[in-house]
């Protein structure tokens, strides 16, 4: 919305909560790789690759396609960890001034980190579940975890917008 060149510089702070969020995201991505490699030999050649809203399998693919989801989870986790270090380049719902900059930057970076955790969890859950369904020959995914994580993403965005506008008035 607004030009980034005119924004005050970010005084980098990295509290323990942010460190734990970043470490959790990267640990999830790594665990997804480890889980995939550990079970790869026991995964059948044909695996479910897509599920409908009821959790029923709608498409099968080759087991190598599981790497795509794991690569995406890793890229999201690593990319958002890196992006959280550059809040000056974000788009904000309010104008960034010298008075509100640090509060807005801190709020936005926390939102990015929590979003990273939610999205990485969602992608890793999809990988873990697909592997488990493939190994156990089940034909249905329990979609409740996905619904909860997607709802949490939307709640996070709404909460962020409310807080960003509130902090702008403070």
UniProtKB/TrEMBL annotation:
It comes from the Bacteria. Pfam families: DUF1648. InterPro entries: DUF1648. Residues 28-73 form the DUF1648 domain. The chain crosses the membrane at residues 20-40, 60-83, 114-135, 141-163. Keywords: Membrane, Transmembrane, Transmembrane helix. This is DUF1648 domain-containing protein. The lineage of its organism: Bacteria, Pseudomonadati, Bacteroidota, Flavobacteriia, Flavobacteriales.
